[in-house]
Design goal:
- It is a single chain.
- By secondary structure, the chain is an alpha+beta fold.
- Helix content is 29%, strand content 36%.
- The protein has an eight-stranded mixed β-sheet with strand order 1-2-3-4-5-6-8-7, sandwiched between helices.
- The chain is globular.
Length: 173
């Protein structure tokens, strides 16, 4: 488990399913994400159980729960590359918890963990170019925009542009 002043970033637990279903079913939260809404409680329970069974340092995606005072308020995924020196991150925060600095706090703590404790060299992130809040969060944590992929992703019936971000271990944060 990773902690900040206000948050715990921990493995998922079975009792996270209802909160997970609630924020993942919010159309505004899902707007720039790959999943469709709503997410049933049954599907959320199955997903959360799978997340909880994974190992954080494994190659591939691992999804962490973002917890504030015992309540699930979001999640942060880390996709560790085969070389175990690079990873991609992604994050989701419940709409009711957005704008309070929790996303910045969680991503910042995850970046510190990946560089200091896991010894990574590079972390990348990608977001829909219309998702100004996510792009702003990444910049605030120290990521640099490295590219724009025009009409790169077909999602929810439309082509979208993707912003590419990167952060190296030696970059200022």
């Amino acid at each position: 488990m990773l902690t900040t002043d206000r948050l715990a970033i921990r493995p998922f637990r079975p009792d996270d399913a209802a909160a997970f279903a609630a924020y993942r079913s919010d159309a505004e939260v899902a707007r720039y994400q790959s999943w469709d809404t709503p997410l049933s409680l049954e599907d959320a329970a199955r997903t959360v159980a799978g997340y909880g069974a994974d190992v954080p340092a494994m190659v591939g995606w691992y999804q962490w729960a973002i917890d504030r005072d015992g309540l699930l308020i979001g999640d942060i995924g880390v996709n560790t590359h085969d070389n175990r020196m690079q990873a991609e991150i992604g994050f989701t925060i419940a709409a009711s918890e957005q704008g309070k600095g929790y996303g910045t706090e969680a991503v910042g703590r995850m970046v510190d963990y990946l560089f200091a404790e896991r010894g990574l060299h590079r972390i990348s992130a990608e977001c829909d170019a219309r998702n100004e809040a996510s792009a702003r969060l990444l910049r605030k944590v120290g990521f640099q925009q490295e590219g724009l992929l025009r009409s790169n992703t077909w999602i929810k019936g439309e082509w979208t542009d993707d912003l590419l971000f990167g952060l190296l271990d030696g970059d200022p944060r």
